[in-house]
Design a protein that fits this description.
The structure is a homodimer of 275-residue chains. With 275 residues, chain A is an alpha/beta fold. The first copy, chain A, is built from 14 helices and five strands. Chain A has helices at 2-7, 14-25, 27-31, 35-41, 46-55, 61-72, 89-110, 116-123, 136-148, 161-170, 187-198, 212-216, 236-256, 258-271; strands at 128-133, 155-158, 175-180, 202-207, 219-222.
Chain lengths: 275, 275
DNA sequence: CGTAGGGCTGAAATTTTACTACGCATTTTG
DNA sequence: CAAAATGCGTAGTAAAATTTCAGCCCTACG
């Protein structure tokens, strides 16, 4: 849809082109707007908006909005563009959200390559889970710990370098160490991975597949760290990491069976006591 | 969407139920119809159609058609089923991911209703940002604080009840208090919202729109808390909250202009020093 | 058994929105 | 340089969405 508009840009007259450009730049807003609003936004008149719709082969404005909502509700049809200094609030918000959705859709496309099965199988017998991350990934680690402890297996989150180093030194068989990092080149994490691995702990990295950390870990959940040349780009990787851990959590709960289910139920009741 | 209608069937009156049933039976037709046509097809009057739309939480008929075309053009119109004890690891992982994507897509559908513009405009002049949340939302608050401080405005995260209470007591003009909660019925947060509001701080809630907290706050980012009857369901609300805050962060950065951009750039360099 | 009240309903009025007719202006062309 | 043509926006029209309001039915209570 948006592609077709782009293609016919050459055949349009001045006012129509103004409309087309606004539609291309703000499709989601247009999908919820009225003719008058679009006309004002494109600095032209209402008839020009209608004429634009006709020119690209639609029956009228109603069909334009319908087609746009259709096109935009396919999660995979997003055209990701970076946020720039000229963007309006609505533009920026929309772009951030689309980037977030896209990163999860990308993850979905790679699911079959991720070692969920293997890792979960080993988690069932673990003595404890340890989640380690620095900076933003530290929050992800805390969140994970906060979630996994409900399964009944002991959990900790480590969010600073010295503590992670110390844990790696005392890690042992039965310990599962999750190392979370966006681009996976923090030296402390890589060293921790090797050391803990040598101590026969199970080391799982959630990071970029081409990183040093990924090499050092026994298992890796590959989450491509798209380079952020743009200062405004938020770290969508956090979302991906959180979601991977969510999935691991659910899968582990299932693998652990009734005992874990019972623990989860009790946790739920503890928050909202049943009458 | 269709599921929500089905769910609220019980709460509808006779005429509204007729409309609901017609919509459920012929969603595709409704998406392209007018109010009059639907009224006639459902053997009722136009106002009843409108009332039906309002009753299920929409702003009017236009939004009903928009939502329907969205729902119908979604490639995975497979009904999301909860994770169950019989699921394989791969099934469970796929479902978790599907739910995560869906929650963000839903958020995107509601973007225009969220007060990004208003809130950002006031954030520009803020003296400090304070993010408060309990439990899992506490991690979201920490993450937000960790992110917003890069703009140059002072930031804190409060993640326990007594601290939140104390801050509300001393909050003042120029302070922006973000209260993050999944279902928004924690008493401490609600009280903090009122108290801080009375102290002329700006109170922004990121929570369920029907909650007490949403009432108590000056501005609300409505994130529907889909009830989790299922013990395995992870809290997708975290993802939504994080993403809302990501968007706010970027929008605020743009609104703050060059000074914020410069701060962001310096932060980036601090992590990866340029040669 | 009657009546007051509340809520539901649809006819009609109102407002909003999409679309059309027409004349002016600018460009195009012989 | 004149005549034609094309495109543009003002103003109007038709249609659609939404609100208003009076009647109705059902319930509650005297």
């Amino acid at each position: 849809m948006l592609g077709e508009i782009n293609q016919s840009l050459g055949r349009l007259s001045r006012a129509e082109k103004q409309v087309a450009e606004w539609v291309l730049a703000h499709p989601r807003e247009v999908a919820e707007s009225t003719v008058a609003e679009v006309a004002r936004a494109a600095a032209t008149s209402e008839p020009s908006v209608i004429r634009f719709c006709r020119r690209i082969g639609l029956s009228g404005f109603r069909e334009l909005t319908r087609r746009l909502t259709e096109a935009l509700s396919r999660p995979d049809s997003l055209v990701h563009r970076d946020v720039g200094a000229g963007d309006s609030t609505a533009d920026a918000v929309a772009k951030v959200l689309e980037a977030a959705i896209r990163s999860l859709v990308d993850l979905r496309g790679q699911l079959s390559k991720l070692p969920f099965d293997t890792v979960v199988r080993q988690m069932v017998h673990a003595r404890q889970f340890v989640f380690a991350g620095l900076g933003a990934s530290g929050h992800v680690a805390s969140d994970a710990s906060h979630k996994f402890f409900r399964l009944g297996t002991p959990c900790t989150a480590l969010t600073d370098t010295p503590t992670i180093r110390q844990f790696a030194a005392i890690a042992g068989s039965g310990d599962v160490l999750f190392l979370i990092s966006k681009n996976g080149n923090a030296a402390a994490l890589c060293e921790a991975a090797s050391i803990a691995g040598n101590n026969s702990a199970m080391v799982v990295a959630i990071t970029d597949p081409n990183s040093r950390l990924a090499q050092a870990a026994a298992y890796t959940f590959a989450c491509d760290a798209q380079e952020d040349t743009n200062i405004y780009t938020p770290r969508s990787s956090r979302l991906v990491h959180l979601t991977v851990l969510d999935a691991l959590h659910v899968a582990a709960a299932l693998a652990l069976g009734d005992a874990a289910a019972e623990n989860l139920r009790r946790c739920k009741d503890a928050l909202a006591p049943p009458a």
